[in-house]
Every structure is written in structure tokens, then in C-alpha cells.
Amino acid sequence: MRVALGLEYDGSKFCGWQSQANRCGVQDALEHALAAFLGIDVRAHCAGRTDAGVHALAQVVHIDTDINRDDNSWVRGTNAHLPPGVRVVWAKHVTDDFHARFSARSRSYQYVLLNDAVQGAMTHNAVGFFHMPLDENAMQQCANLLLGEHDFSSFRAAECQAKSPVKTLHQAEVQQRGRHIFFKFRANAFLHHMVRNIVGALVSVGAARHSPQQFQEIFAARNRTLAAPTFSPAGLYLTDVEYDPVFGLPLLSELAQRHPFFYESSSQHA
């Protein structure tokens, strides 16, 4: 049978999602916990391979196994063997045609930036930081240019393995709440470092280091070397993965009850 699991994790505790030789990945921790719970090895497939330092509030994985447990047992039994930085928050038996990665309609990320004179001591692994005042309107003006289907080569990491740099961005919002700025993105898929590179470019505009016209020219050039440096992973969160409702997975509104700080005033898709 196939089981889908919803995960949240503190990315600062791991070297990214993907399994590594030194067993430092979230995948390593999850598969070890599942093996301890089930007594057999299983392979976990995820919706999005987050990088080192990147967090998740709504990672989705699936596993295949002949062992039958109820949904609550999957959650509690797996969590009993996980380190504190990662938790299974829901489990759901799904049909064999479900795939955590290939069945996903879209993925959503948020980048949380502390815009203040002094970086926070308690949140340095949880949010990004920029010390100069930022122009929210200028950043939103540039974010609007990214909507739709485009070649995102200017915001693609050199080591990106995606077959095509063309992606479709459905949401690109910049929202300031107090001293925090939320950059919200939803797309059919993302390139390696794409969100962090976009955030870096938008911050450069917000700080008047680049004009909106220069941003547009950089985007159109499809040349990564022209854009601003990659921003820190600390403030980046995988916040939603959208699937066909037929699979019966938890809705975004249910996640919002666990993390209202992130989902307040969010545009929720159907």
C-alpha cells in the first residue's frame, strides 16, 4: 500500500532533504525512523528537495509498504524515532497513482526577512536579515514581472539539474508586517536556488541598488551572473504542496491553524 506523510522540519538541523553519505539529510532521519517503527527499510519520496538550511512546514512524502497501520499510528510511531528538528504531522493512505513529486500541481514557498537595524539573536536560523530600509512597492512592482510562464535562467543556480529553465509562477507577493517582510511564491515547480535568487534580486531593488528597469533587464537577459547574490537559506520555508482534491490530503486551511504567523493573509488557492 502507499502512504502519504506530511512533514515539517527545521532545516538548520540538516544538510537538506536528500540522503547523504554521512546521514545528515531529512530523508536519512525519516527513513531511519520508519525502519525503527516498521522493522524494515523503506524509501521515502518527497514533493520538493529542500537545500541545507531551508525549512518546511508542508513537505509531502510517500512510501510503499505491505505493513498496515492506521493513520494516527503512522504519525505517533514515526515521531517516536525522529530527532526533535523534524515531525510527521499527518498521514493518509493514498491510491497507487499518487506520487508526492509527480502528482503535485504546484508548490509554495515563503521567504521571511527581518528588516531591522540589528539581526535577532534568537531567530538567526529562522529568518533572513537585511539592515537597510526596503521599498515594498518597488519590490512588488518587480515581483509582478515574474508572473506567468518565463525562462528563469537569471535566477537559476549553476548546479541546477532541471531539464528546462522555463517555469510558471502563479503567485509573487511582497507583504510587510511590522519589521518582517514576507516574499510569497507559488509555481508549478522551482529551479535550484530560484526563490533565494529572486529574493536577493528583489532586496537589491528595495534597497535602491538596482532600479526596477535594471531588474527587468536582468530577468530578460537570462544570465545568472548579472543578478544579485543568492540570499541566505535561513528564511526560506516550503509552505504548501497542492494536489488534486481526489487524493484527500489535508487542506492549506488546516496547516494555517498550526502556523498562523506564516499563513495570515495568505492567498489560498482552491
Task: Please give a structural write-up.
By secondary structure, this protein is an alpha+beta fold. The protein has 2 domains: about 120 residues, Pseudouridine synthase I, catalytic domain, N-terminal subdomain (Alpha-Beta Plaits, 2-Layer Sandwich); about 130 residues, 2-Layer Sandwich (Alpha-Beta Plaits). It has 7 helices and 10 strands. Strands 1, 2, 3, 4, 5, 6, 7, 8, 9 and 10 form a 10-stranded mixed β-sheet that branches. Helix 3 crosses helix 4. The model has no long low-confidence stretch (mean pLDDT about 95).
What would you say about this model in short?
Helix content is 23%, strand content 27%. The chain is α+β, with helices and mostly antiparallel strands and 270 residues long.
Question: What is the 3D form?
Answer: globular
Main beta-sheet annotation: 10 strands, mixed
In CATH terms, the superfamily of the largest domain is Pseudouridine synthase I, catalytic domain, C-terminal subdomain
* Overall pLDDT score: 94
Secondary structure: number of strands? 10
From the alpha-carbon coordinates, what is the Rg to the nearest angstrom?
19 Å
Q: Secondary-structure element order, as H and E? A: EHEEHEEEHEEEHHEHH
**Low-pLDDT stretches:** none
Task: Output the CATH topology of the largest domain.
Answer: Alpha-Beta Plaits
